[in-house]
Each structure stands twice: as structure tokens, then as C-alpha cells.
């Protein structure tokens, strides 16, 4: 029995120790405290808009003209300027590096802009598809309604049909009147 009591005390101590060292469980009804971030945060939409602006500029004639002017000035400066102020001699390795760097940044920015445009196109296509489905459904509904009106109109007495029926009745009365014997007409008055 002492073993049992000793076992219970030990177990109680373990449980008390376990709950005391257990980390606090965050409450779900309260917001989390803000965490410190190592990296800066940025708005992905703002970065996407910036990349689209850059991609649009890279796809213009203005960019090609400016790039050509910069390259011509670079080459002329490094050929015609005195040796002391030249910063990139004849093989123009630094120019090649700059152009490679520009291309390495331009390609992903253009791809990002294309992906954003694809996403917008996909959303527009989905909206157009839904609008077309609604238009088709409305057209089918109106077609059924017109067919029902035509069928109902076939059962309605039209002015021409009433006129033809009245003309038939007038002819019948005329033939009846002309076919009666004359002595019957005298008795009727």
C-alpha cells in the first residue's frame, strides 16, 4: 500500500511539474501579438505594379533610344577620353556586365508583368464566360416565351378570323332567306 501511495505522489508531482513547465497555449479569441520580422515587408501588389511599369517602359521605342544613346556615349567616352578618366577600356567588359545585369533584371520583371496580365485576362475571360452563359440563358428564355406567345396567339380569335366567320354567317342567312318559301315570310310578319 505504501508503494501505491508513493506511486500516486510521484505521479501527482510529475503532472504538476508537466503543467508548470508547459508553454502557454495561445487563446483563439484574442489576436496574436505582432512578431518582429527580420526581413522588411512589402506589398506584393505594389511590387507587381512597379514591375509592370518597368516592363511597359522596356517595351517602348523610348527605352531602345535611351539605351542606344547610353551605349554610344559609353563607347565614345571610353575610346576618345584621356586614359586617366576612362573607366572601361576597349573590350568593354564593364559595359557587357552592365548589359547582362540589365537583361537579368528585365527578364523576370517582364515575366512577372506577363503573369499578372495573364491573371487579369483569366479573370476577364471567366467574367465574359459567365456573362455569355447568362445571355444564352436569357435568349433561350425569351425564345421559349415567344414560342408560347405564338402558340397562344394561334388559339386567339383574330380580326380576320372573326370577319371570315361573320361573312360565312351572313352567307348562310342569305341562302336561308332565299330558300324559304314566300308564304312563310308572310306568316312571320
Residue windows where pLDDT falls under 50 for at least 5 positions: 1-6
Average pLDDT for all residues: 83
Major sheet: none
Please tally the helical runs, counting DSSP H or I stretches of 4 or more residues. Answer: 6
Secondary structure: number of strands:
0
Helicity level: over 70%
What structural class do you assign from the helix and strand content? mainly alpha
**Terminus-to-terminus distance:** 136 Å
Overall 3D geometry?
elongated
Strand content: under 5%
Spell out the helices and strands N to C.
HHHHHH
Using only C-alpha atoms, the radius of gyration works out to 47 Å
Can you offer a commentary on this structure?
The chain has 189 residues and is mainly α. The chain has 6 helices and no strands. It has helices spanning 2-21, 44-58, 61-80, 93-155, 159-179, 182-188. The chain is elongated, with a radius of gyration of 47 Å. The chain starts with a helix and ends with a helix. Mean pLDDT is 83; it is low at 1-6.
List keywords for this structure.
189 residues; 6 helices; mainly alpha; elongated
What would a concise description of this structure say?
It is built from six helices and no strands.
Which helices and strands appear, and what pairs or packs with what?
Elements: H1 2-21, H2 44-58, H3 61-80, H4 93-155, H5 159-179, H6 182-188
Helix pairs in contact: 2-4
